[in-house]
TrEMBL record:
This is MFS transporter. It comes from the Bacteria. Coiled coil: none annotated. Belongs to the UPF0065 (bug) family.
Length: 356
């Protein structure tokens, strides 16, 4: 507040002036040459302290911004990155580059991103895989929670519990009852050991108190094919794999792993509301930055991500591609990633999951 409020103005934690006492008028204080020099010096110090941040924020971005994607082009994380990066480029009036650095289930890209220059021009699209890998691999050269800073969630991808129509169940609670009454008779397919759809099934087993045998496949397509053929009865499938077969009636959806109903399948209840309270399992992708990236740039990127991902046209296109935009704050995303690491470690340890 100014003199009328009785408090001195402050600048970056430095007092830039002080209130006069009862024996000294404001006019006298302002006319004192020595005091004017002190005040001027403090003002200059304040400006010098804040100038680099203001200048950087005003100048950024001065050239192309890179988004590192640790998976091949065409997958859900890559698709989300492109839906995000393109409008950001338009907003910033600079090119945005999606750099696919695939390999080792997302490890190659994460290692590359962790070593990238933290100058505000390198960002990383992480996924559920990066929360799971620390519990499956002891040879990682990076730490997903310590070598990066959170920027924000981008999208979630529903995991759908589907069954072959020949199975005489129509709800999650009926599936649980059937599994308990017929121990050893049910199996579920997934896109691979240690992946999101596998862990979704193991979490279901643990929380529902059942034992449905896991059968891993090399990808979603063969896993779905054997569900259609009846070789397995249950599958925890990603949304894009499940939706086409749901439309033709070749599989039946019992529930989604999202905390709320999916906009892709609004008529399908959540697993939590239909038999397993508290159950949550879904894939996701969000943006991280190398540790040391300036906080003001992180805040700017987050604010602009929220803006572009909240656009109705973008959201509609993403949902059609199998991704549901879920932008949020850096703090919320950081807490989410830490929680995912702990959650899946417990599931992996309890199920005794090992990579082959």
């Amino acid at each position: 507040m100014g003199p009328a409020g009785g408090k001195a103005p402050r600048c970056s934690g430095v007092v830039c002036g002080r209130a006069t006492d009862k024996n000294e008028t404001q006019e006298t204080a302002l006319l004192d040459p020595q005091r004017r020099r002190v005040i001027a010096g403090l003002g200059a110090a304040c400006a010098t302290t804040l100038l680099p941040t203001f200048a950087r924020a005003a100048a950024w971005p001065g050239h192309a911004v890179t988004f590192i994607v640790p998976f091949p082009a065409g997958g859900p994380v890559d698709t989300t990155a492109r839906f995000t990066a393109q409008p950001l480029g338009h907003l910033w009036s600079v090119p945005t580059v999606v750099d696919n650095r695939s390999g080792a289930g997302g490890i190659v890209g994460a290692q590359f991103a962790a070593k990238a220059e933290p100058d505000g021009y390198n960002f990383f699209f992480a996924s559920i895989h990066h929360a799971v890998l620390p519990s499956l691999r002891g040879d990682l050269t990076y730490d997903i929670t310590r070598d990066f800073v959170p920027v924000g969630m981008a999208a979630v991808f529903p995991i759908v519990l589907v069954v072959n129509p020949s199975l005489p169940v129509n709800s999650v609670s009926e599936l649980i009852a059937y599994a308990k009454a017929n121990p050893g008779k049910l199996s579920f397919s997934s896109s691979g050991t240690g992946g999101g759809t596998h862990l979704a099934g193991e979490l279901f087993n643990a929380m529902a108190g059942v034992k449905i045998q896991h059968i891993p496949y090399r990808g979603s397509a063969p896993a779905m094919q054997d569900l259609l053929g009846g070789q397995v009865q249950v599958m925890f499938a990603d949304g894009p794999s499940a939706v086409p077969h749901l439309k033709t009636g070749k599989v039946r959806a019992l529930g989604v792993g999202n905390p709320t109903r999916s906009s892709m399948l609004p008529d399908v209840p959540t697993i939590a509301e239909s038999g397993v309270p508290g159950y949550e399992a879904y894939s996701w992708s969000g943006v991280l930055a190398p540790k040391g990236t300036p906080a003001d740039i992180v805040a700017r990127v987050n604010a602009d991500m929220v803006k572009v991902l909240s656009d109705p046209a973008t959201a509609k296109a993403m949902v059609a591609a199998g991704a549901e935009p879920k932008p949020g704050s850096p703090e919320a995303f950081g807490a989410f990633v830490r929680g995912e690491v702990l959650k899946w470690r417990e599931v992996i340890d309890k199920a005794g999951i090992k990579l082959e």
